[in-house]
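Summary for the lay section of the report: proteins are chains of building blocks that fold into shapes. Here we show the chain for Aminotransferase class I/II-fold pyridoxal phosphate-dependent enzyme and then a coded description of the shape we predicted for it.
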Amino acid sequence: MKLGIDDLALFGGPATFTEPLYVGRPSTGDRARFFERLNRALDDMWLTNGTLVREFEDRVAEAAGVRNCVATCNATTALQLLYMAAGLSGEVIMPSMTYVATAHAARMLGLTPVFRDIDPATGCLDPRAAEAAVTSRTSGVVGVHLWGRPAPIAELEKTGARHGLRVLFDAAHALGCTYRGRRIGGFGDAEVFSFHATKVVNSFEGGAVVTDDDGLAQHLRSLRTFGSGTDGRIERAGTNAKMSEAAAAMGLTSLEAFDRVVLHNRENHALYRSELRGVAGVSVVPFDEGESSNHQYVIARIDEAGAGLHRDLLMRVLKAENVVARRYFSPACHQLEPYRSERPVELPHTERLAEQVLALPTGPAVSAADVRRICEIVRCAAASGRRVTDRARRTADPAPAPPVPVPSGLRR
Ligand code: T4K
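The coded shape description reads as follows.
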């Protein structure tokens, strides 16, 4: 039990956990089902271009309520193929408060990501800022459903319609989430899911573009498979961005566990909210109760002025207790290379959020008892935030040792 700062492992107390607790432990589902699928692929000697990927695509399209799903080796590549298939050129407006993949996928194609600020109330792209950023070089806008909270879809779609822009969504966090009661996946021209190991549904590595635009889907399938057409003939330049059968076997198995995992995540999220309620300077980002969410991220905001300690120090406190929190997303994209050098921009709301965000462990590997103990550490550190800050500073930066007295006979 952490009663005072002397109990914190950072200052020599015993660590709360003997094994590390992580953000983003994979949800692997029923292992027997996974091996059954994998064995089928091995027995059939069909390791790629097979039926498991097609089945996974069908299940994802169904889950998202869209006609087409094009599975890929990861979501970064899916974004890249989508930017190409959508014909983006010149400038693409997007939030900076996202994983750098959203921007890099554009930059790697020679596009210019134009970062705009967030709405501080949601953490998502401010639609007025996006509208104001449109120039004659703009070809598209990419909204990001940050931590599964929907981007301002209706407003961005209006901006797109007004200026003839492509409207795309990075839905890497948002499988199973809704916007105004409708499932994420069918908005804009297309949306992209991630099935990275850390996501609510994982396929080891994996991603997918989902869309109701059949022509766009066909173009994406071609780009994903060396530029080949439905008859296998090469009709354009393309790449190999396919998902393997082993990845699809995991994706299908993980998808089967989705409802159970989301329920667990929701309970963890509610517990974090109640356990940290009233802690000065610490707040857990809420989800709109009127919408569905997968609750895969528990995001705390640490306001140094209120808590008396900075987010990074709290992260160190937690790390010493074997709780490995993550800064999703800090620094924000515009604070990273090459963007900060190439196109410096000030985004005050984004910068403030980036200074405060801390993703806390959740998911199937984190129990309610774990959450209570993590919150106990946070409460203990925040209750004496200034003392923790002072002591950490002294420990990191010890006063210079007094000079060793030199026997007078040796003095020069
Ligand atoms: N758009 C957005 C908004 C995204 O957030 C992402 C990716 C993308 C696009 C691109 O999606 P992908 O191309 O990756 O499909 C991670 C992930 O690599 C990345 O997928 C994710 N977002 C981003 C938010 O986080 P890191 O560097 O924090 O991940 P990593 O591998 O260090 O793992 C984080 C924690 O998860 C670790 O502390 C331990 C745990 N973990 C991780 C892996 C891989 C496990 O327990 N087991 C595992 O197998 O970037």
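Put simply, here is one thing we learned. The longest strand covers residues 138-144.
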